[in-house]
Hints:
By secondary structure, the protein is mostly helical. It contains 6 helices and no strands.
Amino acid sequence: xxLLHPLLCRLLLCLALLPAxxxxxQGTAAPAAxxxxxxxxxxLIAEELRCLVCQNETIAASHAELAVDLRQQIRQQLxxxxxPPQILEFMAERYGDFVLYRPPLxxxxxxxWLGPFALLLLAGWALWRQLRTAKPGDAASPSHLSAAxxxxxxxxxxxxxxxx
Length: 164
């Protein structure tokens, strides 16, 4: 019994320190730029770029290591005097047009830009065709109901407060 008590205390101490160890293992946050105006410019450009790891968020919102590195790269390029369009062009050359949230309209991205509209038109055409070929008698009508079903439906419609 005496041996169990120290062992249990050690186990509880390890479990209590486990979250602190996990937090230390993740590293420290990247320091923000000393210049708030520079950091704001970095975040504006980062909002225009897609995180290649997450793929559905900007590198400004992502916490992936690649996004942190890309923000640092943007910061360095701004410090070197490059303009936002130059930085976006550099990123597109390096990672492809997929990295841009608003890719340019060109032959390679035509399907990306026109695809949603084409699908919408196709769905509208299919709906129009279905409605045009549907016969007026296709819907449930009294002629498809037996006499007992028709009577029951009439009773239900006339007394909406009651449940069968």
